[in-house]
Amino acid sequence: MKNTKKITGKKIPLFNIKSEYLSIKRFVDKVILRTLESNSYVLSREVENFEKELALYIGTKYCIGVASGTDALTLSLKALGLKKGDGVIIPANVYPTAFGVALSGVNIQLCDVDSGTLNLSVTNLEKSYTKKTKAIVVVHLYGNPANMTEILKFAKKKELYVLEDCAQSLGSSFRGKKVGTFGILSCFSFYPTKNLGAFGDGGAVLTNNRKLYEKIRRLRAYGEVTRYKSIEIGHNSRLDEIHAAILRIKLKKITKWGKKKKKIVDLYKKKLKNLPIEFVGEENLGDSLHHLVVVRTDKRDKLADYLFEKNIITGIHYPVAIHLTKSFKFLGYKKGSFPVSESASKEVLSLPMHQSLKLEEVSEVCKRIEEFFTSFK
Questions:
Q1: I need a labelling partner for 160 at 20 to 30 A (CA). Which of 24, 34, 147, 219 fits?
Q2: What is the DSSP-derived secondary structure letter of residue 167?
């Protein structure tokens, strides 16, 4: 049924890519023009320089720019030589990850998550592990690092590959090390709303393994070692030159933007601490760059509607667990198989969060949330 209630108040968006662009417009416009005038638009200087700069920032030896975070996962699993029948454990609550893994041809093994952080925990990994399991994809959800000490210990005992999905967590760290440096391969997304976002799709794979680096470089471009010399079936998955040029500008700003985001999160927590609303927990040994600010409430849908009426835009990441998604029914899991993930999908709500968000706008969001819960007393 269409919402016919009157929308009031100044709009506060969930994300604000235009505002981000305007803050660095003169730099972005300059590099776009430079790229257009270069007469080189695919896998040239901008991509090569960005790959070096991102690897240096994260702390790995190698980086391969690809077309999306989804492709980063697919190419990574293919590069490891995993095949049909090999099991790969992924969290049951992270919708986009499932597609990148599925496209690699492996057998997805879903795993429930920790009720506090909504990230993978060893307790649940033990339940999902079978003799066919070959790898774990760890997703640092919402920017909050998973407990890599526990996960790596488990993986070593079981002789499993560990891959990191850092799509939402670029810039975050665990025990002083950047996420993306723990797994044998790490995958990043540059979708516009991410911590480091292009103005379109883009992604990257980072690694310290030379052989995997060379393999993924081939797989992203027809399996070629040089132009028209293909030695294996590959994809067409290349980070565009213009996106790379823009990402190079934004990478220089990410630390500054991260500090602003921390102030935003701190204010949200201060203003909402006495309300019947719960923030998704953060790993004690982690330091999040905060891609999203996510709260939980059993009145999620009503709260979202109320905020929408006040012109405050929220999001749900994610509204359905993977095994309850039609395209993944073939996995054979039933409703109730992953209770934490299923419960979270009905309760999580992402509040407005971006580096251009003003603190007075945060206060306005919190004021409206307080109004909502007061009405239920």
A1: 219
A2: T
- Give me the number of domains the chain comprises: 2
Query: Domain end: 194, 226, 251, which one?
Result: 251
Q: What is the model's pLDDT at position 2?
A: 46
The confidence score (pLDDT) of residue 1 equals: 38
Q: Are 33 and 89 part of one and the same domain? A: yes
Contact 13, 6 (CB under 8 A): no
Q: How many whole angstroms separate alpha carbon 73 and alpha carbon 187? A: 6
How many CB atoms lie under 10 A from the CB of residue 250? 21
Range of the domain at 53: 21-251
Question: What's the pLDDT score for residue 377?
Answer: 63
6 part of a folded domain: no
Among residues 207, 233, 251, the one where a domain terminates is 251
- Phi/psi of residue 366, each to 5°? -65, -40
Q: Across the strands, what pairs with 221?
A: 236
Residue 7, in any domain of the structure: no
Based on C-alpha coordinates, what's the Rg of the chain? Answer: 21
- Dist CA 203 CA 238 (whole Å): 9
Residue 128 maps to a domain: yes
Phi/psi at 21 (5° precision): -60, -45
- Tokens 């774990």 found at: 136
Residue 222 CB partners (closer than 8 Å, separation 6+): 230, 234, 235, 236
